[in-house]
C-alpha cells in the first residue's frame, strides 16, 4: 500500500474513533497514539504522534519531530504546572520507543516487510454523563489497538479481558489475560483514574466555556466564472463558541439554497475560534441592496453589514489588459525605431553575421553562464505517580506488546 493510501487510512481511523458527544451532559476524554513503520514525505505526518482530546477537541499534542508534549488549550497551559508537561514529555518519548519496537514485531507477525508503510494505533479513554446534581456517571471505557486501520486488540471492560478479532492477536491476548493484575489496573484506569482526570479538566475548562468572542463580519464580491456575474461573499470569523446564524439578504429578505446560496459550514481557526462563509452569484449590474446578517451568543443584537456594491477584481482584468496594450504599443514603437536605426547603421555596428557589439551577450552578474542570476527567495498526563493521559498499560513499556522470538511467551 502506498504512503498516500496509508495516510488516508490514518485519517479515516482517527475520525472513525472520535466518538461525537451529542448530549450536553456527556463528556469524553481520549488519547490517540499513531506510529508509522517508516517516515513518509507528507507535510504534518510524523513517525509518531500522540494527542489528547476532550469532547473531540484537542487538548495536548506530541510528535516525533518536536519531541515535546504541549498544551493545545489556554486553560491547559494556565492550570497545569511546568513539571506536568516535563513528565508528560518523558512519558511520550518512552511510548514513542515502545511503539517503534512493537510495530516491527507486529509487521513480522503479519509477514509484512518495510516496503510499504504500516500503522499501529492505540486509543484509550472514557466517557461519562454529568447528572443534574453534578455527579458523574461512568458510561464506557475504551482501550483498543489497530493495525493498518483494522481492529487488532480491544479491552472488554465489563468482562475484564482482551478481545482478539484476528488470529495474529491471539498470542498477545493470552499473554495479557494471563496477568490479571494488569487487567484489573486497566479496568481501574478506565473507570476511575480517567474519569477523575476528565472531571478535573472539566473544572479547568469552565472558564473557557463561559467565554464568548463576537464575530467580525465582512461583505465583499469577486468576479464570477459566469460572464457578467459576481460572487457575493459574507464572512464571519473570530467567534466562539461555534454556534452561529448567518444570512445573505436581498432587500432585507434572506436568500436560501434555492437562490444559489452556498456555505462552507462552521470551520475552526488556528486560535480556537471559528469562521463561516456564505456566497451567492448575482448579476454584476444588480443594484439591489445586499447585506450580511450574523447572530451569535456574544452579540446583543445581530450584526448587519451592507455590501458596498463594489467588486474586488472586476476592473483588475480590464486594467491589466489596457496596461498590456499600452506596453505592447510602446514596445512596437521602440522596436520599429531600432530597426530603422539599425538599417541606417546607427546601432549594432559590426561585421555582417557577428553578434552586435553591445556587450549584451556578457553575463549580467559575472557568473560565466551568460545569463542573469536572480536572488530568488529561496498523554498518562503526569501528576504525582499516576499516568492519566498515557493510559493503563504503562508497565508494558518494559516489554514488547507483541512477543516474538526475542522474548518468551
UniProtKB/TrEMBL annotation:
Polar residues composition bias: residue spans: 385-394
InterPro entries: Ig-like_dom (IPR007110), Ig-like_dom_sf (IPR036179), Ig-like_fold (IPR013783), Ig/MHC_CS (IPR003006), Ig_C1-set (IPR003597), MHC_class-I_related (IPR050208), MHC_I-like_Ag-recog (IPR011161), MHC_I-like_Ag-recog_sf (IPR037055)
Gene3D superfamilies hit by this protein: Immunoglobulins (2.60.40.10), MHC class I-like antigen recognition-like (3.30.500.10)
Signal sequence, start to end: 1-23
Residue stretches making up the Ig-like domain: 215-304
Region (Disordered): 368-409
Gene Ontology terms: biological process: immune response
Name of this chain's protein: Zinc-alpha-2-glycoprotein-like
Gene: LOC109907516
